[in-house]
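Database export, one record per block. Field names are fixed; values are copied verbatim from the stored entry.
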Amino acid sequence: MTLERTIVPTSQPRRSATMADVGAAAGVTARTVSNVLSGKVGVRDATRDAVLKAVRDLGYQMNVSARGLRTGLTGMITLAIPDLSIDYFAQLANGVMREAEAHGWTVIIQQTGARRETELAILSGAARQLSDGLIFQPHALGPGDERLITGDQPLVLLGDRIFNGPVDHVAMANAEAADAATTYLIDRGCRSIAVVGANPAGGSVSAAALRLQGHAQALERAGRGLDDRLVATASEWHQNDGAVAAHRLLNSGVAFDGLFCFNDNLAIGAMSVLLEAGLEIPRDVRVVGFDNVPAAAFSYPSLTTIDPGLAQIAKTSTDLLARRISDGPPAQPSEIVASFSLVARRSA
């Protein structure tokens, strides 16, 4: 008996795409592909977009280990922020990740919980050694702590806690934007404007302090003084905190026909309480928030708010970090304040 064996040809394993393949698909050289994926500055946006599209289409995977041996870089950066459950920081993280993709980076996100010991650990700990650079928004650190920023590893600071440090810094125009928000309410006839979000424990350079300062400036320019009875504190800036603060304002018996909340979560929580109390927005109380988070456009009524330039903050900080990774420590650190705008909707 003759046994016959059927041999089924196996398909050849698919060859992984190379940097040269990506360059050919994008119409550029392999060196240009390397520059894009390594975060080098000076690459035109159109070229970067073409390379990243080719990377996605071909499923190209960079050999991070080989790149690390060749360049001393990991291809990773760290973003350290206080709290991802706050919409602003979630949006910031999303923006930084999107911008980091253009540089070929993976983003490690660390939440500090606004704790000083955690922020100090991030400044000096292993996380900075395991990535090529750090974008850091401190909350517990403040004036005087710039002396703790040591070493040559690329670092970009965000926020208002530390100015005049030895590294690049990107901030938002908190006081100026708050001034614009209060002025908007004054121009629409509001005679008594309450605020939600002040935090006396935050110090004089916190976002809360600066926004209260801007609010007071607008009142003073209009010939009015700041009424402490209309300043509602909130140690956290979640929707529930806005609701609690609004209850306190209503129970105080002090009348107000305008409300400026220091972020959109506070505003959305406060508006729910005002509506439950039978007040109409904006007929009885005009409301303005801050941050222009996605939920602001879909709240009821839709929320007038300050757009603090978050997209600019994410792009600028990522580009500055790329420059420092490529060129080394800054001879002269950059201090950049993002542009803001007021987004008018139904609530005011």
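Remark 1: The radius of gyration is 25 Å.
Remark 2: The chain has a mean pLDDT of 86.
End of record.
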